[in-house]
Write a structure and sequence with these properties.
Largest sheet: 10 strands, antiparallel
Structural class: alpha+beta
Bound molecules: arginine, glutamic acid
Radius of gyration: 26 Å
Number of strands: 19
Number of domains: 2
């Protein structure tokens, strides 16, 4: 067993006492735990009310909860809820699929969509869902034969070991395997998975439910969003993954989650299983200071600008609303989270907390010569590294905002460039015509959701802001000596990147000569190429050196914590691998004089709708049903619960994750955190940090009463 995973019993007793004596605080909730090591926490979880065994939660030999939890599209979590491969995830996780099946005529975003039978379920090219077959500690095997080697030979040897281990794991089973570093390279785990490529859209509520509250409520409690969508996993006749095909049949899972329609009791045990993306719990005080004071505020101001343009456009036309809804949601989501994080970190005085922890660490190191030598200066070195590389890191963040999140003309340039660098190859092997066809098709998809006027405005505002922020940093010459307005006027009048007809014409007449001309004359392409060159030659190398050096220090630092503080509950930072977090159904009181209850109801939807904020618009049916109090069998004490909060430590990637009760039944779908708790990516505070889930009973109600899709409810196993 990994030493980081030991919890001593004294600590557990202390936790228990605490949770009895204070309503909102305990320490048990922090941490994103590795499922294969969950046995170490079984006692603590049982003490909090859990009735399952570690083997019920994670097992390699028998089916277990793990088999019902899928990694959805690589970025979200989803759970199987029927013997016929029915899969639930968030509405915002299925959003791009829902959007791509939508048009002004068939507006599934606005009206929702429900397949009446299997044949109406919609296929999704490129969408995958993966089941984790096993998670295995391979640290010793990865490090085998590396003792005494120099750093570079050691890395080579490890790479060799990894290739062999992966090959072995994949032989003859159709699985894929990956070995990931945990705890900054102190541990290695192999993750073997089975990936399904035929995942179809079964149903979605309208935006007025699935996105109710929009950006106004995003990251905020009280919350009333019905953030769910329904898919189905298909497999071949042998129940194995297969490419999209009409011959496929619904997948029969090893395990699916029964659904709890029982009354909820505040304080009851909750567990979340899913794929959290990334956390940075070990940042030093200096790093946090830089993020709070400089990096995040600058990124926020870049997005302030693009959002002001997109939001105005979306308010002005239905078409723009459809074209930009997905892009807007993505930009706004990070923007708002960062504002919340900075607020939370400042409120709890996170920098001082870090300084105190750093002192405690250094004091402990000073108690033993051996510790002092190994760990005594690591924090100082990390802080110095941050200071040394601040400008590099800042240049990187700004370039990401400008080139990758900013004007879309850059995205189009990047795609085109990817094609052009292979032009000779395509010509040689005779695939050029087919590749051109592909480009044209891709461009049609791009321009379907593109409005050049909007992009032009974004280009002007972001270029000005970028130049201002980066100052003397690595800027392309053209940005230094031409005004953004001038550049924009030329680019949006002439560039092939900003107009479908110009782009298609260029492609249809493509020759080696026209590429030369493009590179010399098309200002949009030229500007992107200049900026991209700067990015690759001046920004990326620096950031790689920085991150590499920081990772080495973090490895030592984390090891020091394991060695010097063995009694503390430790957990590896999230890295998009499967994790478990447990806590309770509970509210919070993050603001002096105010308490948040742990659930919201349908009444709150109607109350919000009574304001004139368009984010709270409803289709008439919701008010009708609410007026009749037509709650079916889904109510608790005469009210229909909509969302609830819990003290589960989650982050991006946990969207769609099941909230599971003490018996292993599905209570709801995680989809967010409260504004006050978004800081948990850097620092978890048990009294503030709450995840937000949509109650499964509301999901069932929307299917059954609102949408007339009772057949889907009937497919599930309801636990009363
Ligand atoms: N904040 C949630 C998450 O990080 C939900 C995002 C989607 N909703 C939205 N209004 N943009 O993904
Ligand atoms: N909405 C997030 C997601 O897409 C989850 C919220 C969070 O960051 O906790 O994964």
């Amino acid at each position: 067993m990994n030493i980081s995973m030991k919890l001593n019993t004294r600590k557990i007793t202390a936790i228990l006492l605490l949770s009895i004596t204070s309503i909102f605080s305990s320490f048990a909730e922090e941490g994103m735990l590795i499922p294969s090591l969950i046995g170490a926490f079984e006692d603590d979880m049982k003490a909090m009310g859990m009735k399952l065994s570690a083997e019920d939660i994670y097992s390699v030999n028998n089916s277990s909860l793990k088999d019902a939890i899928l990694h959805f599209g690589g970025g979200c979590t989803a759970e199987l809820v029927s013997s016929q491969g029915l899969l639930l995830t968030n509405h915002h996780c299925g959003y791009s699929q829902i959007q791509s099946h939508s048009s002004l005529e068939n507006n599934y975003l606005k009206n929702g969509f429900w397949a009446k039978n299997r044949s109406e379920e919609l296929k999704n090219l490129g969408l995958t869902a993966s089941r984790i077959v096993r998670i295995q500690d391979v640290t010793l095997a990865v490090l085998e034969g590396t003792k005494g080697l120099s750093q570079s030979s050691k890395l080579l040897k490890m790479q060799e070991n990894i290739v062999i281990l992966i090959d072995d794991a994949m032989r003859g089973n159709g699985y894929s395997a990956d070995i990931k570093a945990f705890n900054y390279g102190n541990d290695f785990y192999m993750i073997v998975k089975e990936t399904f490529d035929d995942v179809r859209l079964v149903g979605t509520p309208p935006n007025s439910i699935g996105k109710f509250g929009g950006d106004t409520d995003n990251w905020v409690w009280p919350r009333h969003t019905g953030d769910f969508s329904v898919f189905r996993v298909y497999a071949n006749a042998n129940n194995q993954p297969a490419g999209i095909s009409d011959d496929n049949v619904p997948y029969k899972p090893l395990h699916f989650l029964p659904v709890s329609v029982k009354n909820r009791v505040p304080g009851e045990f909750t567990m979340i299983y899913g794929f959290p993306g990334s956390t940075e719990q070990h940042l030093t005080s200096e790093n946090l200071r830089y993020i709070i004071d400089q990096e995040r505020p600058a990124r926020i101001s870049m997005r302030d600008k693009s959002l002001s343009v997109i939001n105005a456009g979306m308010r002005s036309s239905d078409l723009i609303r459809i074209q930009y809804s997905s892009k807007q949601a993505r930009i706004a989501n990070g923007w708002k989270k960062w504002i919340g994080q900075i607020g939370g970190l400042k409120t709890v005085n996170a920098i001082q907390i870090k300084l105190d922890r750093e002192k405690k660490y250094n004091d402990m190191a000073a108690t033993k010569t051996e510790w002092q030598e190994t760990y005594g200066s690591v924090i100082k070195e990390m802080n110095e590294l941050v200071t040394q590389y601040k400008d590099v890191d800042f240049g990187y963040s700004m370039a990401i905002e400008y080139l990758y999140v900013g004007p879309e003309v850059f995205k189009q340039a990047r795609n085109l460039n990817l094609f052009l660098v292979n032009f000779n190859k395509f010509e040689k092997n005779g695939t050029l015509d087919a590749e051109i066809e592909k480009q044209i098709k891709g461009a049609k998809g791009f321009f379907k959701n593109y409005n050049a006027d909007i992009d032009k405005e974004i280009f002007i505002l972001l270029t000005e802001e970028y130049v201002k922020q980066v100052g003397d940093g690595p800027l392309p010459e053209r940005l230094k000596n031409t005004s953004a307005q001038d550049l924009a006027d030329k680019i949006f009048k002439k560039s092939i990147l900003t107009d479908e007809a110009r782009f298609v014409k260029f492609m249809n007449k493509l020759k080696a000569k026209s590429i030369k001309k493009l590179q010399k004359k098309d200002l949009g392409f030229i500007l992107w190429a200049d900026a991209n060159d700067k990015f690759r030659s001046e920004i990326l190398p620096g950031i790689r050196t920085y991150k590499g050096a920081m990772n080495q220090l973090l490895k030592t630092y984390v090891k020091g914590r394991m060695v010097m503080f063995p009694e503390e509950k430790m957990w590896p930072d999230a890295n998009s691998t499967m994790r478990i977090t447990y806590g309770k159904l509970e509210g919070s009181a993050p603001i002096d004089g105010m308490a948040y209850t742990e659930h919201t109801t349908l009444k709150g939807i109607i109350a919000k709708n009574n304001s004139d904020n368009p984010d709270y618009e409803l289709l008439p049916r919701m008010r009708e049903l609410a007026k009749k109090k037509d709650y079916g069998s889904y109510a608790q004490d005469g009210e229909l619960w909509v969302c609830f909060t819990g003290s589960n430590h989650t982050t991006g990637g946990n969207s769609g994750s099941p909230v599971i009760d003490a018996e292993g039944n599905l209570m709801g779908l995680n989809f967010d955190r409260t504004w006050e708790s978004t800081m948990s990516d850097y620092m978890f505070d048990a009294s503030r940090c709450r995840n937000i889930a949509v109650d499964i009973r509301y999901v069932l109600w929307v299917m059954d009463r609102y949408s007339g899709a009772k057949h889907l409810v009937d497919e599930m196993v309801l636990v009363k």
